[in-house]
Amino acid sequence: MTNRRDALKSAALLPLAGLPFAASAAPALSGVPIAGHFTHEAVRLWVQATEEAKATVRYWPANSAEPEAASLALALDKASGHCAIAEIAGLMAATSYRYRVTLDSGASVAGIFRTTPAPGSTPRDFRVYMGSCAYTETYTRGGNPYGANHQVFDTIAGAMRADAMPHFMLWLGDNLYLRGPSETFKQPAEYSTAAHMDLRYREVRAQLQLRRLFAATHHYAIWDDHDYGPDNGDRSFTLKEDSLRLFRAYWPNPAMGSAGLPGTWCSFRHQDAEFFLLDDRFNRDAEKAQPDPAKAMYGLAQMAWLKRSLAASKATFKLVAGGSQFLSAGKNGEHSGWHSYPGERDDFLAFLDKERIPGVALLSGDRHNTQFFSHKAGGTTLNEFSCSPLTSKVGKVGKAELENPRRDPACSVETQNYGTLEFSGEGSARKVTARCFDADGKLLWTRVLATAA
User: Phi/psi of residue 446, each to 5°?
Assistant: First the structure.
């Protein structure tokens, strides 16, 4: 069986059109650049090299020629893990751009990013692809493969390439899987040191199917325990500052957290939708801690920010994304979910009931099966699309969830899958339609997640 580190060396040499991976010491591009947060005038672009290097990013409107390109320089130094996020500004609204990243070694790669329509424009139709729990290898545990149906990454990338509707992808946690100690290879847990965590990021970003998916659209991400550290990790994780630094370095989200409240939480506006990406790990109390009204998954400060932001939002739709399920059921400490933090959850649901904020919907993953939940709040229906797993081992729906009155039994999926959100229509007829697909792209179900009226 191949050693993890040997596997990384092999994976780093997989070919990709237009992207050379040199076997020499000369710096090469590691993985592919990832286009992340984008507005009507700016884009964040993640770039990484295999060694310390200087990089030049050239970019130009897709209907123009490369000689007309603007450019910016990046330093990919050792202290930053040989990666950087380019802040590309001064762009034209609603425009597709081509770009080329070139290292001082001569290695280069080309790609495409785009900008959103200008603020105040009539909302256009767009789509969000989403999923969680992406275990990118296959191994057998207890007679069952833990990772399977890896073609889902190519299925999603193919759907994006064929999609006439503008789109981006939202990764809903467990996007990475920092693995525990290996008895076979006599290796420590990958969350035991910052260096091991960084190596795992590099290993996953080098995988061919993920490179094809990353190249297909813009990407946003939240984290859950397997991106953060140990299984069911909480605020007691000793390397959480290192984990946060790596997540921020590898995902080109909007600016995350604040000086007073560290974490991965952030928000962004896309046309008539505002997305609130929550951090369910950095300040989380232990899930199996004794019941207490003050027991928290997100913490008072993050919940105060979320409430203020939802109340102030002028967006038609407000999408709240968290790594753990919001409306799940179960006993305290049984399975991951906000039900293990009833004081915090009940307070938030009471807030929604009182404020009657329209257009709110919830997005989550984690549980290794897909569910659709509905809850009556403030005279409206609050829906949650919990989408999982992309490739990880499938988990059966437990007894507590089968008895959950909020659960739509027709939407339970116990196979690898992904979801989409389609924002479409005009005026009061505008709506968000949720769809779930299996790993081969077969449509499994359709539901309306939120409406404008």
Answer: -135, 135
Question: Is the Cβ–Cβ distance between 225 and 388 less than 8 Å?
Answer: no
Centroid of chain to Cα 354? 30
Within 10 Å of residue 261's Cβ, how many Cβ atoms? 16
> How far apart are the C-alpha atoms of 192 and 181, rounded to whole Å?
9
Distances in Å between the alpha carbon of 124 and those of 103, 270, 306? Answer: 37, 10, 26
Q: Do domains 25-114 and 126-451 have the same CATH topology?
A: no
CATH superfamily label, 126-451: Alkaline phosphatase D (PhoD) (3.60.21.70)
| Listed residue (219, 222, 435) closest to 322, CA to CA | 222
Alpha helices, H only, 221-341: 225-228, 240-250, 300-312
Distant-in-sequence, close-in-space partners of 399: CB < 8 Å, separation ≥ 6: none
Most confident of 101-115, 180-194, 373-387: 101-115
pLDDT at 143: 58
Quick one: 197 exposed, middle or buried, by C-beta within 10 A (0-12, 13-18, 19+)?
Answer: buried
Q: In the predicted model, is pLDDT for residue 55 greater than 60?
A: yes
Instruction: Specify the CATH number for 25-114; select among 2.40.70.10, 3.20.20.150, 3.40.30.10, 2.60.40.380.
Output: 2.60.40.380
Nearest residue to 75 (alpha-carbon basis) of 99, 104, 98, 113: 104
Buried b (16+ CB within 10 A) or exposed e, 232-251: bbbeebebbebbbbbbbbbb
The CA distance from 291 to 383, in Å, is: 26
pLDDT for the residue numbered 379: 78
Amino acid found at 118: A
372 strand-pairing partners = 385
pLDDT band at 447 (very low <50, low <70, confident <90, very high): very high
CA geometry: angle 59, 46, 174, nearest 5 deg = 145
Distances (CA, A) of 61 to 35, 82, 438: 15, 28, 35
Sheet architecture: strand order including 360-364: 266-270, 273-277, 317-321, 360-364, 380-386, 371-377
Spell out the domain ranges in the chain.
25-114, 126-451
Average pLDDT estimate for 302-326: 98
pLDDT at 332: 56
